[in-house]
Amino acid sequence: MDFQILDSIPELSNYKSFTDRYFTKRYILNYGGIENNDIMLMFHSNRIMLLSLAPSHFFFKKNLGYSINFNTGKVDRLSNSVKGKGKKGGQQLEPNSTLCQILFEDDTSFKVPSCIKGSLIEINESLVKYPELLKEMPDSDGFIAIILSSITISEAKKSEWLTPEEYLALLKN
Amino acid sequence: MDQQKAIFKLCKGLGCCDSCCLRYLGIRYQNAYENAQTFCLKFQDKPANAEKVDQNKPTDISPPSSTSENTVTSETNVSTDDKPTENVTNDESNNVNPGDDTKTDIKMEEDTSNKEDTDSSNGNVATSNGNGSRPAKRRKRDICTSCLGLLQKDGWPECNAAVKEVLDKKQYDSKTFGCGLSAPIATILREKVICLKIKEAFPDFDERSITTLKESWKWAYGPQLAQHIGIALDSGSVSPLLIVLNMEYPDDLQELEILKTLSPDLFESRSRQRKRFTVEFTRRSVEQALEGATLEALTALRWGSVRSADSAASCVSVVCTRTPLYLGGRYIKLSRELPQTPWLLGGKRMMESSVQDIIFEPLAKAYGMSEADADHRLKFMSAGREDVDVRCLGDGRPFAIEITDPRRELTAGELQQICEAVSSTGQVVLKKLVPVTKEDLTLLKSGEENKTKTYEALCIKLAHSKSSDTTQNGTTPITVTDEDISRINSYRNTPEGAPERIALTQKTPIRVLHRRPLLARTRHILDITASKVTGHPQLLVIRIRTTAGTYVKEFVHGELRRTAPSLGDAIGAPVDILALDVTNVQLDWPNKQ
Ligand SMILES: [Zn+2]
């Protein structure tokens, strides 16, 4: 028997990125009635969710320096911690809870909403040191938060929000 | 000796059988119980069963070492008033309404049929004494008031038949057996009353000195069971085969009912917690209730002396089990669509097969197990696991199988056939399967924590390296350069000379985060080398040796920077993984024999 890793070279044109391989993407447009306040949620098959800015978010058109504030005034998202297999103790999120605030150098700002009721598992700490990831890699290393919601809510939202096909179709119009 | 004789007489008077008399005398050797009737002669002033004894040759009835005592006995020639006095308790038992007997019989049969339902699933059958095959009912006064007949020969054929039935069905290859007894709990109450009666007459009598019912039952019943089933009796801790007889006494609960009055606190709290204590009377609770009981207290409950028994305890089920066997081996997994064990999501099978399924199938067949049977009698253990899409090559991954209640050991030839059947699937290859011991399993488990593993990974470079010259632009193809390779081959973030080259911080990967706590762990890469792939300029292969628990896929792509550093950090460009093989799990398994 002689098996080698080179037996396993796939068709490279079928290559899918890490998030495309393992996550189902969903989009929400104009969240909270704010134009192009567009959010992307990525559902792992185990129900864990990543929240990012959607490519059509107005943030990407603004060519200004910015900083990210994870302190909502009520809680510091960076102090979130969860314990055990059950991920107990995570900050509780309502759809309108603010995950973070983006402050532009012209003193304008916007808030990133949680979009879903659930529990905060993890904030992307890389954004503290490398805020540019938010702009450069929104689809991967620039994600904002990991959230866990109930099966019922996750499933309901997954079917309610826009699929990638629906999202692209709407963007073209 | 005089006191022993007096105690013997007292026990006889209370309705004890010969063996039970010996128990209360604290006699502790097998021979005594194997031939209790003969052995008892030395404690009797006059042979208990005069007619029977007369029929035998006198030499046969002499106790092994006490001819002189025997002479004394016959000389003393005690008055005939002292004849065996089962009668003491007869008055009481005669009051029992004869109708009760029939009622009791029906109840017994019902109990028996229930047992049959529950026990037959694992091949251990209940006795079928409900269909009229039961031996003629013994007269009440013959049933020992202490052991309820367990030590009396008349009940044994029924027990023997029940054991034989199970053994014939299960076909063990064991040449020895150990036996165990589940006795009616009422025997504890009865024993207590008898002890209190002895203590009343002989204040220095120590109830802790008596021989337990279980022990004497093994000595009395065990040897003749051995003869009946044709294998040797051995200690339960030595023989792999254990035969347990469940004996039930129809009036058990009824007799124990008085304990609720005797020890109301104990059973009140227990019945309040009924949901938790489904069995109200356990050996433990009954022993507790009787611990400080006095004869006065028991007299008030009409147990001032031991009562006669309306019926003997009978065998309701026999459970035979053989100690587990263990097999060890190493499996090679050639499929990227095969989980190690059945992948269940909400009780549903997500993939058709698994390494475990493929190995269990021919093994179950060799043992004649049904699929359901195999499900709970075969247990798969391994030194770690690989993902569904990861192959395990080289010598394979160490694993073991625990076989519960095996009927026999498989031959080397059969084990080889199992390996061949597994390998013929093309998905899993087994080279050998050998018997291992339970102690060996600790090596397998410790291996999970201590072993190092070697992998090969096929990787893709996703962008130009940041450090490379600026002449690159969007149209230049991305290629793995010699510089990339040498950077990986010399990459380290630990002090020069340290045994590990790269120390990683890995957050629990998202893919397992639903079932594991979120933690940032430090893991190590001991060695890593990279090479280009001919004909595929964007690809590279890495060979990597890690400590246990390192997530290799996450090291390659960095998992959204949740693992740092990642392979991409070594070359200053994002990298992803396309395929992963385990090439070596370092563990000496199964042990060379
Ligand atoms: Zn007895």
Query: What is the CA-atom radius of gyration of chain B, in angstroms?
Result: 36 Å
What is Rg of chain A?
A: 18 Å
Strand fraction of chain B equals 15-25%
> How many runs of DSSP E, i.e. beta strands of chain B?
16
Structural class of chain B: alpha+beta
User: Can you list the strand order of the major beta sheet of chain A?
Assistant: 1-2-3-9-8-5
Helix content of chain A: 10-25%
Helix count from the secondary structure assignment of chain A: 5
Assign the CATH superfamily of chain A: RNA polymerase II/Efflux pump adaptor protein, barrel-sandwich hybrid domain
Largest interface: A-B, 32 and 34 residues
Report the mean per-residue pLDDT of chain A as an integer.
95
Give me the strand/helix succession of chain A: HEEEEEEEEHHEHH
Overall spatial form of chain B? elongated
CATH class of chain A: Mainly Beta
Question: Span between N and C termini of chain A?
Answer: 57 Å
Strand content of chain A: 25-35%
- Biggest β-sheet of chain B, characterized? 10 strands, mixed
InterPro entries (chain A): Abitram, Single_hybrid_motif
Protein name (chain A): Actin-binding transcription modulator
Enzyme class (chain B): isomerase
Biased composition (Polar residues) (chain B): 86-97, 120-132
